[in-house]
């Protein structure tokens, strides 16, 4: 530098700051953490609104990195005058922009949806640009207090990268599980503000800040705006999120893995459950879906005692399974323990699933892939009365709930099951597509008892035709014989399932279906005739020129799903 920092501020002869390099290093550590968390916040907001987490994270982070690169180039035109003031201004602007970004993005989607993408990417690019200015700006300031260029870079770039790592850990294991996104943004913005404030106070002490009044005004106004936003963000969040849904939100929760929302349409008495903005079920017609998912397989297996449910954390498939008197044990495997907790405690959801998770007791499992969430014993009234006057009951089944990535669970599956029900969300992301892969379906063979049947929810054979057919091809490529069927679920349209088995004759299966007179349990919708009708498809509906199957290394299903017609509706 041609001028010292003292000279550029018009002040010479002042006492030399003793810990300036340490303060600047700490600032870069904190801002590095904040910068990465801002990237995660904006990516997650886009995911909640638009879905497809891989695409939203990829585009958001790529745009932020692009703007950081642009800022790195633009900074060469910045003069060396008033560097400390510029750093203070930068951190306060970044605090305000980052703090209010999620609220503004939510608002744009609710009030001006046609301009949502422009507003969303404005915040992404603006915040990325400001983050990109931090390192070169602090490098210039720290040059005064470093003996060599290497020392300067080590004292600035090193803490920034380490801070990013720490920020990722704090985001993953604390912030996302504890606070709503709109609150996290103000907490992170508050950290940037804190850096600006202590920088101002420290360098002002040594007479190195020239525009003190301007800086004080900026800091006071920023503090007031951040405090105002933090205090009101939860109310704003609820009001703005409501714009994303047609009916009133009656419950919402962000878990480590997803955003859960329950809405209620009072005139129709329709409760709808959403995960990351995607409809999971409607109370008006969910019985169609869950009865088709469960009961046909039971009619084709003799005296099924052990049932495995993969997914189904809402407990609705479990409700249908527990209707069958032969069932002695059900193992429900769901990745998200908070999903099971919500659906076993929320009064609306427990009423819908008929209290399928009642009386659960925590049980640990010695596995890094599996965490026990409890065991539920199911009792039935015998019609008799005990001497004490209480109704006599008998145990009819045991339900074990485990929270685990289902793919990892199958690597360690403890035993075999007579019926396996696979009730995963649609394959809309790479994380979910692996649960529809050939490798996954091959693992299922080890978990299936002799004569077992498996059932897979397989998206819509009409709206997502190529996805449906890909799932069937993938099952067959893993050695399963398949039986596709479908039905109209009004909330979703034409929906499809695929039943699969090994070592059984297809003729025998079809004979049992033709002779089926009853499912042996009470149903709200399904009858044998309705199921037989579900086996019929329109002309060429199951034909395609596509031949690709879905594998871990070639997730063809994701391409089919994203390209299918309903994405354009």
Description:
The protein has helices at 5-8, 20-50, 53-74, 83-111, 116-142, 149-178, 181-205, 212-242, 286-299, 316-321, 337-345, 347-352, 406-411, 430-433, 438-447, 465-477, 506-515, 528-534, 556-563, and strands at residues 248-254, 259-265, 270-275, 278-282, 306-311, 329-334, 371-385, 391-403, 417-423, 448-457, 481-489, 493-501. By secondary structure, the chain is an alpha/beta fold. Helix 4 (83-111) packs antiparallel against helix 7 and helix 5 runs antiparallel to helix 6 (149-178). It is elongated. The termini are far apart.
Give the overall shape: elongated
**Oligomeric state of the chains present here:** single chain
Report, as a whole number of angstroms, the end-to-end distance.
59 Å
- Helical residues, percent: 40-55%
Q: Total helix count?
A: 19
Uncertain residue segments: 1-14, 359-382, 393-397
Q: What is the β-strand count?
A: 12
The helix/strand class is: alpha/beta
Strand-residue fraction? 15-25%
How do the strands of the widest beta sheet line up side by side?
A: 7-8-6-5-9-10-12-11
Largest sheet, in brief, is:
8 strands, mixed
Give Rg in angstroms.
29 Å
Mean pLDDT across all residues, rounded? 85
């Amino acid at each position: 530098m041609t001028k010292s920092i003292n000279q550029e501020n018009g002040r010479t002869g002042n006492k030399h700051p003793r810990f300036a390099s340490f303060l600047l290093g700490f600032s870069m550590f904190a801002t590095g953490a904040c910068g990465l968390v801002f990237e995660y916040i904006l990516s997650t907001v886009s995911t909640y609104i638009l879905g497809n987490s891989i695409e939203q994270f990829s585009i958001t982070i790529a745009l932020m990195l692009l703007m950081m690169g642009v800022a790195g180039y633009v900074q060469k035109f910045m003069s060396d005058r008033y560097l400390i003031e510029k750093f203070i201004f930068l951190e306060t602007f970044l605090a305000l922009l980052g703090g209010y970004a999620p609220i503004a993005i939510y608002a744009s989607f609710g009030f001006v949806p046609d301009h949502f993408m422009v507003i969303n990417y404005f915040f992404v690019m603006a915040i990325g640009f400001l983050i990109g200015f931090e390192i070169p700006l602090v490098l210039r300031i720290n040059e005064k207090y470093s003996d060599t260029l290497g020392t300067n870079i080590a004292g600035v770039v090193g803490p920034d990268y380490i801070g990013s790592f720490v920020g990722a850990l704090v985001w993953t294991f604390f912030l996302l599980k504890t606070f709503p996104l709109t609150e996290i943004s103000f907490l992170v913005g508050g950290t940037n503000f804190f850096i600006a404030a202590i920088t101002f106070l420290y360098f002002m002490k040594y007479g190195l800040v020239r525009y003190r009044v301007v800086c004080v005004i900026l800091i006071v106004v920023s503090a007031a705006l951040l405090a105002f936003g933090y205090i009101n963000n939860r109310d704003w969040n609820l009001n703005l999120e409501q714009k994303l849904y047609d009916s009133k939100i009656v419950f919402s929760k962000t878990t480590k893995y997803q955003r859960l929302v329950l809405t209620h349409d009072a005139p129709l008495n329709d409760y709808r459950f959403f995960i990351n903005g995607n409809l999971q079920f409607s109370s008006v017609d969910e019985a169609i879906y869950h009865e088709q998912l469960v009961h046909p397989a039971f009619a084709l297996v003799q005296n099924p005692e052990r049932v495995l449910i993969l997914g189904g954390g809402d407990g609705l498939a479990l409700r249908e399974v527990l209707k069958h008197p032969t069932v002695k044990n059900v193992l429900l495997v769901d990745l998200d323990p908070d999903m099971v907790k919500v659906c076993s405690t929320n009064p609306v959801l427990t009423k819908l699933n008929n209290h399928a998770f009642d009386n659960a007791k925590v049980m640990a499992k010695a596995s890094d892939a599996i965490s026990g969430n409890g065991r539920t014993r199911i009792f039935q009234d015998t019609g008799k009365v005990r001497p004490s006057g209480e109704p006599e009951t008998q145990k009819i089944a045991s339900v074990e709930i485990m929270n685990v990535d289902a793919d990892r669970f199958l690597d360690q599956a403890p035993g075999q099951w007579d019926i396996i029900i696979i009730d995963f969300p649609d394959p809309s992301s790479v994380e979910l597509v692996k649960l529809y892969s050939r490798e996954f379906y091959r693992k299922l063979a080890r978990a299936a008892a002799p004569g077992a049947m498996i059932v897979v929810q397989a998206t819509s054979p009409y709206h997502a035709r190529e996805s449906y057919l890909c799932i069937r091809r993938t099952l067959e490529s893993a050695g399963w014989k398949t039986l596709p069927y479908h039905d109209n679920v009004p909330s979703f349209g034409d929906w499809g399932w695929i039943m699969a088995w090994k070592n059984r004759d297809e003729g025998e299966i079809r004979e049992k279906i033709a002779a089926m007179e009853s499912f042996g349990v009470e149903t709200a919708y399904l009858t044998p005739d309705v199921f037989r009708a579900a086996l019929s498809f329109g002309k060429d509906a199951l034909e395609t020129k596509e031949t690709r199957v879905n594998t871990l290394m070639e997730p063809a299903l994701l391409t089919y799903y994203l390209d299918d017609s309903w994405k354009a509706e």
